[in-house]
Amino acid sequence: MGVSTLLVVVLAMVFGPLQAYCQRLLVSMTLVRNASATGAYCLDGSLPAYHWNRGFGSGENNWLLQFEGGGWCNDVETCLDRAKSRRGSTRYMSKYEVFSGILSNNVSLNPDFYNWNRVKLRYCDGASFAGDGSFDNGTSLLYFRGQRIWDAIILDLLPKGLGNARKALLSGCSAGGLSVLLHCNSLAKYLPANASVKCLSDAGFFLDVPDISSNYTMRSFYRSLVLLQGIQKNLNINCTSSIEYPALCFFPQYTLKFITPPIFILNSAYDVFQFHHILVPPSSDPRGHWNRCKLNATTCNASQIQILQGFRNDMIGALTFLSEYSRTAGTFINSCFAHCQSESQDTWFAPDSPRIHNRVFCLHAFLFLYY
Q1: pLDDT score at 354
Q2: Which residues make beta-bridge pairs with 134?
Q3: What's the distance, CA 200 to chain centroid?
Q4: What is the percentage of the chain residues whose pLDDT exceeds 90?
Q5: Measured between alpha carbons, how far is 271 from 337 in angstroms, rounded to an integer?
Q6: Alpha-carbon gap, residue 351 to 55, rounded angstroms
Q7: Is the pLDDT score of 40 beyond 90?
């Protein structure tokens, strides 16, 4: 082998994976034109949308549906603000989305799902695709139609091949991860009886626990959200009929045992969002004693670390049901200070991704679920 040939081989070995890692897949937006027939509108009245990259080869009849995340709005003021942004209107959304991580079409970066039909469901209702109501005071009009948006998107995709799905994975991160747990059962009802339907919730296991001031801040937030957006009637009826306060079924820990398809929970035990907004929300720390700890976990003092460890224990405890009573569920709970790990290539499948027994963790997890 000559020097020049050897140089080409070495460069290919070094830069080939890097080139694949840096490739960007841009997928155009599809508006759901028939959504208006059922009143399936975004907060501002615009049509809902999704991005679809068609499957091919062995993945032609397999579908991955990814809920977009992005928080919630639990009062009229914040929903009105949200309606003027990409979080509440397709008018302000980018018309092309980068598909990376679990949505990538590159076999070296996403070996399990690269050739599946991959769909990103855009989030514009502010209630994890679960509301069904409206607000109209004669001056301002808001549509709380997340449940109808979910139904409209699925109905739009069924004749495009989803109705013939052999395998389907419903996924999402953050508020989208919560959407997965709220809609996992309903996806199975739309698909053929012999279809394999499974669900992945990434950073969507939001806990109902007291904050450092012993207040249930997130519980209050979710209760007002459920009331404002008319969510309760869309929550799992087995959960709402078995609990004193039905609105609590918006929390995954209460509805988990009523989910029928196999589920996989991917979460950090020290989820950054939950650390900052559930465990130590600004209202619980008016003097900012936790500010340094929030910015850099290595600066947390012994007392703060103990509280964080307690939160981790709460997370593990809430998931005990899966390990003790379910044979079709799985979890991967790591100790990263992170929020959402399946959408980013860095944490989904990269040379320095977290590993178990020298295998990249997400790939290992899904092989466990699917093969």
Answers
A1: 61
A2: 143
A3: 8
A4: 78
A5: 6
A6: 26
A7: yes
Does residue 352 register a pLDDT over 80?
no
d(CA 59, CA 295): 42
Measuring CA to CA, how many Å separate 242 from each of 236, 237, 239, 245, 324?
10, 8, 5, 9, 21
Q: DSSP code of 162?
A: G
Residue 2 pLDDT greater than 60, yes or no: no
Q: What is the mean pLDDT of residues 81-96?
A: 98
Measuring CA to CA, which residue among 142, 139, 259 is closest to residue 204?
259
For the record, the structure tokens of 254 come out as 């209460």
Which residue out of 112, 211, 271, 314 is catalytically annotated? 271
Residue 349, pLDDT score = 67
Residue among 51, 179, 211, 339 flagged as catalytic? 339
CA-to-CA distance for 147 and 69, rounded, in angstroms?
15
* Residue of 174, 179, 268, 342 marked active site: 174
Backbone CA torsion sign across 120, 125, 126, 130: negative
Per the annotation, the verdict on 357 as an active-site residue is no
Q: Is 353 strand, coil or helix? A: coil
Active site residue 339: yes
**Per-residue model confidence (pLDDT) at position 330:** 87
In this prediction the pTM is 0.89
271 is an active site residue: yes
Identify the weakest region by mean pLDDT among 21-25, 206-210, 258-262, 285-289: 21-25
Q: Are strands 133-136 and 263-268 parallel, antiparallel or unpaired?
A: unpaired
Q: Which long-range contacts (CB under 8 A, 24 or more apart) does 219-224 make?
A: 219/248, 219/251, 221/72, 221/74, 222/74, 222/247, 222/248, 222/250, 222/251, 223/247, 224/74, 224/75
